[in-house]
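Hi U.,

Before I forget, here's the chain from the pilot set. I'm dumping it here mostly so it's searchable later in email.
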Amino acid sequence: MAFAKKDLPKKSENLSDWYNRIVLQAELADYGPAKGTMIYRPYGYAIWELVQREMDKLIKERGVENAYFPLFIPESLLKKEESHIEGFAPELAVVTIGGGEKLGERLAVRPTSETIMYEAYSRWIQSWRDLPLMINQWNNVVRWEKRTYLFLRTTEFLWQEGHTAHATHEEASAMVRWAIDMYAKVYRELFALPGYVGRKSDAERFAGADLTMSYETLMPEGKALQSATAHDLGQNFAKTFNIEFKDNKGASQHVWQTSWGFSTRSIGGLIMTHGDDSGLRIPPRLAPVQAVILPVKSDEAVLKAAREIEAAFAKNGIRAKIDASDNETIGFRINKWELRGVPVRVELGAKELEKGTVTVVRRDNGEKLSITLADAPTKIAALLEDIQRAMYEQAEIFLHENTRKADSYDEFKKILAEKHGFIAALWCEDPECERKIKEETKATTRCLPLDSKEEKGKCVYCGKSAKHRWLFAQAY
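Structure:
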């Protein structure tokens, strides 16, 4: 461990320091030797593997196939779509020397894959029979961030990026909606993290897209986290890269495209949302270890029972681990696994063995239970589901309590100054008002929720007519 647990600051008093120490102490990640880079340690990477496993099923069920495209993108390709390159230019990393020689054409290190993938799509798509073309990548990307934050904002990060091409805009629109709903499902059902699905403003949409949808979550200090996005690219890239097909009547058409992505910043959101003063609290469905079995003493009979419990858990689909380290006290081991956020702790000693029971402790609320050895596998499986539900409900209460309406600019600024969180406010959708609000308050439009209803009113900033209540917040 990098720090003694007693040195862990309180989350409620210093979120930033608490967060950084938790990531290091719980051995989720470490700093890389190059500025802004991060090493994913096995415990942290195991969470990402569980996300991959579950999300990959959903992606493949939709008919999207996995592939891999090169990391290096010729600069000429990247420059083909002007608004796209303009959006990424400040974050680009560029290779100018290879094999000890100056390159004839500079290579951008992949910030996202639209350009390199669509050059291939233009060669692969010829007929309506080639559509839809739907490909997903699990890969890494590089964006040269000025300010970095473990998991949440690093120079290199891991993600999935889906890219589809369709014969009609209706098909593409349906794909965008499926993608953002899939992300919402993953966040709600795996991460126990509620949020808002909505449309981004024109100023906040992805460079090169006609429309961007996002899943917006709220962190403990009241800042928003853009947690996933899905983009309707229209025919913008298709026209630039000449991605055409012959329809069933023999006429040439440009395809309609989408792209959508979900990254390891999601793990940062999980840490911030669910952690407490004692360390991590990992929702059971994403916990690398769902139940840690702690023999109180290294007695052979106790160890034999622990191994039997571990095997019974495995048969019931519970990810379990025995920690019988004889060089650590039981108190140290309890603190270690509490810090690492394991949902359930199972304590077993001579007294429990004599009674035919185990002592079970929930990480989410500290509740202690005594369960018979025979019932332990089924009861703990049910307990894990209850913990998952309870953690989601707790986060949902926080989200609702910290989403407030503002009907005047003074009220808007007061909420930001005193409470933070999401602010639902009428906005005229004039980019100039949006720019001024951001300049004066550091709050940005996060999204227009999909379930929002039209209402008659005045813009919170300029007083002009407005019909939609957008969500604003300060963000990472």
